[in-house]
Each structure stands twice: as C-alpha cells, then as structure tokens.
Design a protein that fits this description.
It catalyses: adenosine + H2O + H(+) = inosine + NH4(+); 2'-deoxyadenosine + H2O + H(+) = 2'-deoxyinosine + NH4(+). The protein is an alpha/beta fold. It has a single domain, classed as TIM Barrel (Alpha-Beta Barrel), CATH 3.20.20.140. About 50% of the residues lie in helices and about 15% in strands. It has 16 helices and ten strands. The strands form three sheets. The protein has a four-stranded parallel sheet with strand order 1-2-3-4, sandwiched between helices. It is globular, with a radius of gyration of 19 Å.
Length: about 350
Amino acid sequence: MSATRIDADVIRRLPKAVLHDHLDGGLRPATVVELAREVGHTLPTTDPDELAAWYYEAANSGDLVRYIATFEHTLAVMQTREGLLRTAEEYVLDLAADGVVYGEVRYAPELNTNGGLTMREVVETVQEGLAAGMAKAAAAGTPVRVGTLLCGMRMFDRVQEAAELAVAYRDAGVVGFDIAGAEDGFPPADHLAAFELLRRESVPFTIHAGEAHGLPSIHQALQVCGAQRIGHGVRITEDIVDGKLGRLASWVRDRRIALEMCPTSNLQTGAATSIAEHPVTALKDLGFRVTLNTDNRLVSGTTMTREMTLLVEQAGWTAEDLRTVTVNALKSAFIPFDERRALIEDVVLPGYAAAL
C-alpha cells in the first residue's frame, strides 16, 4: 500500500473501527420523529431532514454544556423497551453500512429509566437490540462486532451503580466502562471508588478527559483513577512545546495509551479550531496511539467515512494514516487479544489491500 491520497468512494469501502460513539447521540432522524410521535414528545420539527439540520446547528455552539443539551430529544424516545430495541438495532446496522467492522457503543443506563425501566432492564434491552442488529448485519454480508461501554454520569450519584452493572454484564456484551457528562467542575477522582471496583474486578475503562478541561483532568484520569484509554484527550498538546513532550505527554505516548479523538465533535464544543489544525494529526506524527471516532453521529452530522474524508481532504492524511488509526483502535479495543489480532490480520489489513 502506498502513502497516497484517496477519495471518499475508496474510504467508504475501507474497514473501520470506532471506540468512542454514544448510542443516544447517533439515532436516525426519522426514527426520532416516529418514536417521538408514539410517546407524545414534542420536537423542534417533525421533518427528518430539518431535524438533522437542527441537531447539527444546535451543537455548533462551541460549548460542551450546550452540545450535551441537544440530547434531550433523543433520550426522550429511548425510555421504553421498544425504543431501546429499535435504536440499538439500527445503531449496529448504521455502523455496518459505514464499513465499520468493530465498534464500541457507550451510553448511561441511568438516563433511560424515566419510563419505568430499571438500569438492569435497560442494559439487557440494549444488548438484545445490539445482538439483533449484529445478526442482521452478518446475514447481509457486512458483519460487525459491537461491544458496550456503560457510562456513569460524572455530575450525578449513580456512577457506582453503573460500574457494578459493568461488572455484572461483562460476560454478556459489556466490554468496559466510562464516565461522561460535563467535564469541567466534575473531576474523575470524585468517583474513585467506582474505578477501584472496576480495577479489582479486571474490567477495563476509559474516561472522558482533556476536552473541556486540561492537563489536570487527563492526569487524574490516568494516574489517580487508572484509565486504560482517554476519551478525547485533545488538550494533551498543552504538555508538548516545540515538539518536546512533558512528563504526562511522555507517559501517554510511551505507555501506548489510546486517545479517542473525535475531530468534528471537538470543533463543535470548542476543543479544536479546524480539521486542518486538529491535534490528531500532530499527535499521530509524534507517535501517539491516536484513534479516530465519531462521538455522536446525529449530533455531529457525521460518520466514520466522513471523519476520514475530512482528514484526507483538509489535513493531508493518506491511506496509510487511516490504516494506522484503525489498527490503533483495534489494538486498544476492550476485547481479548486474540480477537483483536484476528480483526487486524484477517479483516482490516486484507480489506485495505483489496480496497487500494
């Protein structure tokens, strides 16, 4: 494979892996409209195309808190068993249509209990929907493996409960844990007991850090809480001056700690200024284990194909760069080593060779 520029049609055919993608941020607009009608929830518009545009425009505020506020309408239609089953199944099918061969989907079960479901029932229902989607994708000849990350909301008080569910369902499709929500003012160390539980039970976890808050957030996530990956982490660049890495940046690079980078989302929340100048490129060139992700496909109006295409067109990425971040993601996926290696050697590398 040569280090050459490639177009969107080729990119669409490439096998992809995504580690940072929120279930409640990736619904189909038409599904939101239909489910909202069924549950009596009022939307900004009932036209699917207009709703997609509303999400994208509302999220382009440059502020993480306002970005998160757009989830009101997706969460409103994910409070019933039927809503969860449908959105989970469609999530998998949409990944498969985008060429994704491995994905990790994250959500906070506590946010889906307003309709009377317990957190345990939410987890079991989502797993059922994901399994149905994977079966349909495989039958269609586009198999995709999807693992689940359960999230605790860092500004609320049910993080420990979510961590306990991650332990309980780790042999039933849940592959790891995360904390999400407003980062600034809610440090990860506030939930140290949950992370200590996960470490004792050998459940891997990532932590949203270095997006709305800087180096102290990343330091706490890694050195106090023990995260194996960092969600976003764009502000690790604050520990790099003229190409010289500080102690924390060196730790991240040298220990091969994956950074789950989400370029379009970072532009929307103000964590980055442009695709061309997004830190993912500089960090890639410095040898960090960067991965490429969508974060919220509806809210950010994006797909893995789009994220890759933007970096090719605006940041000069090559096919080799795209292959590197895909392999990086699989190396850091929260599934067993032999399964990661098989995806790399039997799916991704041959898929790149065939597409190029």
